[in-house]
User: Which sequence fits this backbone?
């Protein structure tokens, strides 16, 4: 009984490890294609969800709240179609948005650093340095929207490869 459980566990580890390894290598080697595929898949599912909502409206309640939902579903279907047909738009927009969020957060941290200087007069140097780094990174992401997603996808790919290697290692350590 215990041997069957170990065999099943080893087989599952092997399958998981192979899948993670393949996905990780694909993400490291072809990050742009992986992002484009992700955008297309997201666009497809957004379209399907929105069209289901439109069909639901056609056969269901026609009240005021249903009309608002219909408008949102139509916008979702259009956005999903656009995303499916133009995945590079998603990559550029999401990167710039991410950069703006980081920049705003860094500026807020700068403000906090200045406040600490005024009130405490100690412990502000590290806060100021890290705040400046965050602002610079935010500006960098905004200026290079296509480089950052590829780097992030590659990092995810490397993590998946490491995870696969760990799965293979753990599998090899299981005694039969």
Assistant:
């Amino acid at each position: 009984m215990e041997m069957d459980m170990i065999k099943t566990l080893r087989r599952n580890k092997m399958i998981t490890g192979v899948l993670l390894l393949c996905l990780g290598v694909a993400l490291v080697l072809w990050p742009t294609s992986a992002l484009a595929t992700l955008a297309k898949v997201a666009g497809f599912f957004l379209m399907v969800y929105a069209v289901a909502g439109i069909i639901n409206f056609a056969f269901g309640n026609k009240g005021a709240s249903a009309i608002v939902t219909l408008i949102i579903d139509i916008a979702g279907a259009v956005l999903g179609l656009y995303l499916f047909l133009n995945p590079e738009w998603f990559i550029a927009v999401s990167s710039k948005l991410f950069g703006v969020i980081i920049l705003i957060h860094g500026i807020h941290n700068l403000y906090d650093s200045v406040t600490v200087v005024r009130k405490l007069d100690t412990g502000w140097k590290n806060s100021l340095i890290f705040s400046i780094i965050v602002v610079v990174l935010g500006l960098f992401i905004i200026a290079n929207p296509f480089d950052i997603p590829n780097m992030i996808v590659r990092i995810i790919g490397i993590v998946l490869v490491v995870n696969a290697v760990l799965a293979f290692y753990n599998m090899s350590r299981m005694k039969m």
Notes: Helices lie at 2-29, 31-59, 64-85, 87-119, 125-143, 147-173. The chain has one domain: 11-173. Residues 11-173 form one domain. The mean pLDDT is 82.
